[in-house]
Each structure stands twice: as structure tokens, then as C-alpha cells.
Automatic annotation (TrEMBL):
UniProt entry tagged with the keyword Thylakoid: no
Organism listed in the record: Streptomyces musisoli
CDD domains to which the protein is assigned, alphabetical: MDR_like_2
InterPro entries assigned to the protein according to its UniProt record, in alphabetical order: ADH-like_N, ER, GroES-like_sf, NAD(P)-bd_dom_sf, Quin_OxRdtase/zeta-crystal_CS, Zinc-ADH_QOR/CCCR
Alphabetical UniProt keywords: Cytoplasm, NADP, RNA-binding
Domain Enoyl reductase (ER): 10-295
Locations listed in the record: Cytoplasm
Assembly notes: Homotetramer.
Protein name, as recorded: NADP-dependent oxidoreductase
Pfam families to which the protein is assigned, alphabetical: ADH_N, ADH_zinc_N_2
Gene3D superfamilies: Medium-chain alcohol dehydrogenases, catalytic domain, NAD(P)-binding Rossmann-like Domain
């Protein structure tokens, strides 16, 4: 089968399309014929060699956590899923024609494979950091870098819970954020004062790693009310860095519920063929994403 692999840490150019042995479903796992794979910032952070404790890497390594596809192997002890089912979920080395998933759920009615592949890690991360920052209904959450996949999920989930959201993003994504229900402002010069004019900030999330931790602490008044998923230096300022996933099956179940009720929609900004994984990483690395990027297998 074909898969994307890298034999050394570095830029997008280290990604190679290679022939590899097919993986197989071990006990408690399923294998899917991948139709689409989500492109997440964690993918290129791992490829670059950033120290992410939750994701140890042995080279050569595959790439990818999220995928949607058709079940074609069911491991021992797995119940409730059959060969031929359409599922989405999280596993390992999903930039490939076949991948083994450790967590999965039936694809919600009406979603394409490309759309479904963009949800698993994104929703798990959004649910986790909303919980960790301990923001409550009636309070206001500031989201720095709100227009990407995780930000899009955070805004919609927080609004569903009765939380006011202030989101920062580029000028081109202001209407997009407002459409999700956020109070929007740009992140260029003067953004702190613009946020203050929008209201009191009870908690804040750093999703972009753009060097704004000090300002987020200033706005909330408490480093304990700030969580980052993108700035590895955040703990030096007393801010929690969240990089270890919680329960992916629980997150997928909540995603299915929210999507099915029309409460969560994350658009696919761009799809790439598997052969253009390097371009997908380069584009993801620049930021300014509206929703998700996915690979079509």
C-alpha cells in the first residue's frame, strides 16, 4: 500500500510517498480503507521534531492521527462495528491507503469522508481545553487563533454551552467567526484594547502559538485561567500547555451528537491528494486556516 512517511525530522520536503506493508487490526482495533485523512498542526510539529511527550517518534515514521473510511478488518473483541461500515476516528499513520483506528464512531448522516476526517482530534482537543480552562455558562472565553479547526469547534461548543466567545483571527475570517456566534476582532496591533472593549475576559485559549501568552494572562488576570495547545514555552509563564488527549471515544460520541443536531459544522477549507501531503503541511504551517485541511486518499 501507499503511505506518507519521513526518515528524518525537518521541513515538509522530508515527507515521502512510499510503498509499505499493510497494517492489520489487533485486538480492540479496527482497520479502515482510508478515504480521507485530517491534517492537524500536531502532524507537522511531530515531523519537525518538536518535543511532544504524548507522541514519541521512532524513525522512519508514518504521519497522521485522524481519518474517515470504510471498515475492512475488525480486531478480536471488537463489537458494534462490521466490515463495510463507514466510520471516522483516530489512530496512527492515517496518511495511507489503510490505517488502524483505536477509537471510532459511525459517520453522521450527510457527511462526506472529507468532512468527517476533519473532526476527531479537533473535537477531542476542543472539549478537553474548554474543560481544562474551567469556563462556565455566562462567562466569556477569549480564543486566540479562533478560525482554524480547533477554534471553530471551540467557538461552537462554547456557544452551545451558554458561554460568550471573543475570537481573534485574520481580517479575512472576521465574518466567518461572527457566523459561528463569536465576537470577532483581528490580532494585529491594538488587539488587546479591542478585546477589552468587547467585554471582560474570564478565561483564554491560545490556539495559534503566536506569542500572546503574556497578553492573555493580563486580560484574564490569572495564568491559571489560560491554556495553550501551541506554545511550548507557556509553562514558563505559569500557563498550562495541554498536549495529552483525553477520551477520544467520548469526544467522538459528542461530535456525532452535535453534528447530528446541527450544532457543529467545521468546513473543509482545502483538500489535497495524498501525493501533496507536503503542500498540505506547508499551508497548515502558515496558519490563517478557516476550518480544516484534509488529504483525499
Amino acid at each position: 500500500m501507499r503511505k506518507i512517511s519521513f526518515a528524518e525530522f525537518g521541513g515538509p520536503e522530508v515527507l515521502q510517498l512510499v510503498e509499505a506493508e499493510e497494517p492489520h487490526a489487533s485486538p480492540g482495533r479496527i482497520r479502515i480503507a482510508v478515504r480521507a485523512a485530517g491534517v492537524n498542526p500536531v502532524d507537522w510539529r511531530i515531523r519537525e521534531g518538536q518535543v511532544l511527550g504524548a507522541h514519541p517518534v521512532e524513525l522512519p515514521a508514518g504521519v497522521g492521527l485522524d481519518a474517515a473510511g470504510v471498515v475492512d478488518e475488525v480486531g478480536e473483541g471488537v463489537e458494534g462495528v462490521e466490515i463495510g461500515d463507514r466510520v471516522f476516528g483516530e489512530g496512527a499513520d492515517t496518511y495511507a491507503e489503510f490505517a488502524v483506528l483505536s477509537a471510532w464512531a459511525p459517520m453522521p448522516e450527510g457527511l462526506t469522508f472529507e468532512e468527517a476526517a476533519g473532526y476527531p482530534s479537533v473535537v477531542e482537543t476542543a472539549l478537553r481545553i474548554i474543560r481544562e480552562v474551567d469556563v462556565r455558562p455566562g462567562q466569556t472565553l477569549l480564543v486566540s487563533g479562533a478560525s482554524g479547526g480547533v477554534g471553530s469547534a471551540v467557538v461552537q461548543i462554547a456557544r452551545e454551552r451558554g458561554i460568550t466567545v471573543i475570537g481573534t483571527a485574520g481580517a479575512a475570517n472576521q465574518d466567518y467567526l461572527r457566523g459561528l456566534g463569536a465576537l470577532a476582532t483581528t490580532y494585529n496591533e491594538g488587539w488587546v484594547e479591542r478585546v477589552r472593549h468587547l467585554g471582560r475576559v474570564d478565561a483564554a485559549l491560545d490556539l495559534a502559538g503566536s506569542g500572546v501568552i503574556r497578553e492573555l494572562v493580563e486580560l484574564t488576570g490569572d495564568p491559571g485561567k489560560v491554556v495553550s495547545i501551541a506554545d511550548l514555552g507557556a509553562p514558563r509563564l505559569g500557563v498550562r500547555f495541554s498536549g495529552v488527549a483525553g477520551s477520544v471515544p467520548d469526544a467522538l460520541a459528542e461530535a456525532v451528537d452535535l453534528i447530528s443536531r446541527g450544532r457543529l459544522h467545521i468546513p473543509v477549507e482545502k483538500s489535497y491528494p495524498l501525493t501533496e501531503a507536503a503542500a498540505a503541511h506547508a499551508d497548515s504551517r502558515t496558519g490563517h486556516t478557516r476550518g480544516r485541511r484534509v488529504l483525499v486518499v
